[in-house]
Write a structure and sequence with these properties.
single chain, 158 residues, alpha+beta, five-stranded mixed sheet, 5 helices, 5 strands, 38% helix, globular, binds FE2/S2 (inorganic) cluster
């Protein structure tokens, strides 16, 4: 069945079963492999994308549920104000180790910052708790989110 989905501002027609997870459509049909497969069960966060700005597990999102919502992936999140700040802070804190979980981490962190520009430690823990990192980069992730939030405060943005 054909579906029209909007990814990173572009419209794509895909011909797949309606229950196909968005993750597979992104990776296998559209060739956007920045979004990672970890558990396939909603437990690790590696597959996180934004749907209308909300951090969403794409492995648990059937393509027929997306409709006309705007999907943003790691390939384009750097073009958003929060994504740009998060990616800069990630580099400054040298967050990444093996990197496998990091697309999902950045997507969750940038969605957090967009909805809550000055998150507390508890807010960060709450928003990031579903993103697992087997390399244990959690301390650097939290520091980088705080740095990005400071950058938001200094630039006077929301
Ligand atoms: S691959 Fe989607 S949550 Fe793990
Ligand atoms: S950086 Fe290796 S799993 Fe997170």
């Amino acid at each position: 069945m054909a579906f029209t989905i909007k990814v990173n501002g572009k419209t794509h027609k895909v011909d797949v079963d309606g229950d196909t997870p968005l993750l597979w459509v992104l990776r296998d049909v559209l060739g956007m492999t920045g979004t990672k497969f970890g558990c396939g069960a909603g437990l690790c966060g590696a597959c996180t994308v934004h749907i209308d700005g909300a951090a969403t597990r794409s492995c648990q999102t059937p393509v027929d549920s997306v409709g006309t919502s705007a999907i943003t992936t790691i390939e384009a999140v750097g073009a958003t104000p929060e994504g740009a700040k998060i990616q800069k802070a990630w580099l400054e804190h040298d967050v990444v180790q093996c990197g496998y979980c990091q697309s999902g981490q950045i997507m969750s962190a940038s969605a957090l910052l967009a909805s809550n520009p000055h998150p507390t430690d508890a807010d960060i823990d709450d928003a990031m708790s579903g993103n697992i990192c087997r390399c244990g980069t959690y301390v650097r992730i939290r520091a980088a989110i705080k740095l990005a939030a400071q950058a938001s405060a200094q630039s006077g943005s929301r």
